[in-house]
Structures are given as structure tokens and as C-alpha cells.
Design goal:
Layout (H helix, E strand, L loop, with lengths): L1 E5 L3 E8 L10 E9 L1 H11 L4 E7 L1 H14 L6 E2 L5 E8 L4 E5 L8 H12 L7 E5 L10 H11 L3 E5 L2 H7 L6 E2 L3 H8 L6 H13 L4 E5 L5 E4 L4 E5 L11 H14 L4 H15 L10 H7 L4 E4 L1
Parallel strand pairs: 1-4, 1-8, 2-6, 4-5, 8-9, 9-10, 10-11
Antiparallel strand pairs: 2-3, 6-7, 11-12, 12-13, 13-14
Helix pairs in contact: 1-8, 4-5, 8-9, 9-10
Bound molecules: adenosine-5'-triphosphate and magnesium ion.
Adenosine-5'-triphosphate binds next to helix 8 and helix 9.
């Protein structure tokens, strides 16, 4: 069982317009709602790949009820902590003429101390213990930046492995507790280390630096160039095949899902990286906020290349 934590879930509302005209009335040609938030995406992909998962996080308001219904329809199990506030709504406008996507993201509701403690208590007391706890995405107002570090420490004390996929101060604070796995993209790794990673050699160096800080598995994702992954015994470059991209939204979350699912099954790091890259790349084949399809992951898997460094 892989548990995921989404502290700041969202109901993503995507409208498609033929041509977006600013300061005019536009008409949409399609409208869809998707459950959003990085941990939720990880669980959705694990579920698609026939893994066992559960979503934890905060939920509230009418949009929160819709989000739960959508997860239920998809068969993704959840155990949310109710809050007084309303779950955030992210608005995404797809302009068909330019293929550009404009996002307007909300900061998220304020979380009270009591709500935070009840979420932590739910996660800590869950039985049976999950094999992995995946913490992903932003932290809503009212929740301290060191929440991920606290959850990582609690998980460690119970022998549960952890994955942290966040950015900025949330990632910086979280890695102080030394999660088992992190998967920053190049930009997030640059921000974390305060240095530009302009070529493969500097990305490899960055991954090794983070391993030396006590993180077991450091995967730095590089979009079409795949992943560089480092542990204390090996460094690998994992490269996807060239594909025709539809939308890269959720590719990183899918890569996290592939990696953690494979590690939970007891696979080697090599195989975990292959599934990570296949799942990430499979997600780029689907439009908008849609994630990967199992068949695409399976057909891409044998095409993923690996280089030992
Ligand atoms: N243009 C692309 N072509 C092929 N594969 C891609 C492309 N973009 C992403 N991927 C796949 O998805 C994985 C993760 O992508 P990326 O580095 O963009 O993650 P990210 O920036 O964390 O994404 P997210 O926005 O979901 O957080 C890559 O390792 C790769 O396998
Ligand atoms: Mg990401």
C-alpha cells in the first residue's frame, strides 16, 4: 500500500475555447473537472497501474464534495480530513488557436491547528502501515513549512519509507528530515542548491551532493531528457523514447508514481527508474490534465534507455 498526502488538493476546471480574446466574452467548447494536487495525481497513476494506494489530505466545501465524487468514480481510495474552508479551484483555459494553456491557481484555504493535528494523527495511526508515504505539492496557509519534515520523522519512526516531491521552502525544510526519495526537476534542484545546473555533469553532481546529505535516492527529472538518478552505490541516466507530446501536465507526478510503485514491489533501482520514465512519458501523450494510460506505459517501457554513469 502506498499512501499519498495532498495538503492542498484542488478541483481543476479546464475550459477549451477556439480563440481566447481578452476583455471580451468567450464561449467554451468543452469543460471538464479533474481532481488535482500532486499527491492525488500520484495515487491516480498508481491506481491506473494496478497498485494499491490511498489519498490523505484536507477537503472542504462544495468543490470538495465534487472532488471526492470524481475520485470515487475513478476508484481511487481516499481518507480525507474535513476542514471548515473550501478546497481550492484552479482554472485552466486551453486556447485551441495557439494550443497555449493559461492557469489561474488559487492559494488554498486556511487550515486551523486542530485540522492539521487531526490529519497528522490520522496518518500516524493508520493500520496497516503503508510501505511508502508520498508527500507532494504545496502547503496551504496556516500549515508550517516544516510539516513534511515532521511527517517524514513520524514515518521513519514507524519504519515507513518516504518520498518528498515539493519545491522552494517546502522542499528545503522537508529534506532536513532526510526522506528516502526526492524527485525534483532541474529547476527545483537548482533552487534547492542555489546553483545553475547547465549540463548533465552538473546535474549528476547535484544528485550526488543530495545523496551525501543523507537522502537515499535522488532522482532529478529533466523533461524530454528523462531522469538522472543517484544512490550511494550507483548513478544512472534514464532516457525516454521520443514521443509526440500532447500535454506535459502531471508528467513529474506520474514519474514519482512509477518509481514508488516499482520500489514497493521490491524491484531494483534500475527497474524503478524505467517505470518512472515510462509513466512520466506516457502522461505526455494524453491531453490537458489527463494522466497516463496503462497500455501506453507498458508499450513505452521496453523503449526506455539506461546509461550507467
Ligand atoms: N517532453 C517530454 N518528452 C518525453 N518525456 C517527457 C517529456 N516531459 C516529461 N517527460 C517525462 O516525464 C518525466 C518527468 O518530467 P518533468 O521533468 O517535466 O517533471 P516535473 O517538472 O516534475 O513535472 P510536473 O509538472 O508534473 O511536476 C521525465 O523524466 C520524462 O520521463
Ligand atoms: Mg514535479
Amino acid at each position: 500500500m502506498i499512501a499519498t498526502v495532498t495538503l492542498n488538493p484542488s478541483l481543476d476546471k479546464t475550459v477549451t475555447v477556439e480563440q481566447l480574446v481578452i476583455d471580451e466574452t468567450n464561449r467554451w467548447t468543452s469543460f471538464r473537472r479533474d481532481p488535482g494536487g500532486k499527491g492525488i495525481n500520484v495515487s491516480r497513476v498508481i491506481h491506473e497501474l494496478r497498485g494499491k494506494t490511498i489519498v490523505y489530505g484536507f477537503i472542504g466545501g462544495v468543490d470538495g464534495e465534487i472532488l471526492k465524487q470524481l475520485l470515487q468514480q475513478q476508484g481511487v481510495p481516499f481518507d480525507f480530513t474535513p476542514i471548515k474552508g473550501e478546497v481550492r479551484s484552479n482554472l485552466i483555459i486551453t486556447n485551441m488557436e495557439t494550443c497555449c494553456q493559461t492557469r489561474i491557481d488559487a492559494p488554498g484555504p486556511h487550515i486551523s491547528k486542530g485540522e492539521l493535528e487531526s490529519l497528522i494523527s490520522k496518518i500516524i495511526h493508520t493500520e496497516p502501515k503503508p510501505s511508502f508515504l508520498v508527500m507532494a505539492g504545496s502547503i496551504p496557509p496556516g500549515v508550517p513549512d516544516n510539516i513534511y519534515a515532521r511527517l517524514i520523522e513520524e514515518a521513519k519512526a514507524q519504519g515507513v519509507k518516504t518520498v518528498l516531491d515539493s519545491d522552494g521552502q517546502w522542499l528545503r525544510e522537508g529534506i532536513k528530515a532526510k526522506p528516502t526519495v526526492i524527485k525534483p526537476n532541474v529547476h527545483e534542484a537548482e533552487d534547492l542548491l542555489g546553483t545553475k545546473l547547465k549540463d548533465e555533469a552538473s546535474i549528476i553532481q547535484a544528485a550526488k551532493t543530495l545523496v551525501n546529505q543523507g537522502i537515499e535516492v535522488v532522482a532529478i527529472s529533466r523533461g524530454p531528457d528523462g531522469l538522472i538518478i543517484a544512490t550511494d552505490t550507483q548513478t544512472l541516466s534514464v532516457i525516454p523514447p521520443q514521443v509526440e507530446i500532447s500535454s506535459t501536465v502531471g508528467a513529474g507526478d506520474s514519474a514519482v508514481a512509477g518509481m514508488v510503485l516499482s520500489l514497493t514491489r521490491g524491484d531494483t533501482i534500475e527497474d524503478a527508474c524505467r517505470l518512472a520514465v515510462a509513466a512520466g512519458t506516457a502522461t505526455t501523450l494524453t491531453p490537458g490534465t489527463e494522466l497516463c494510460r496503462r497500455q501506453d506505459v507498458e508499450s513505452l517501457l521496453p523503449l526506455v534507455k539506461m546509461k550507467r554513469l
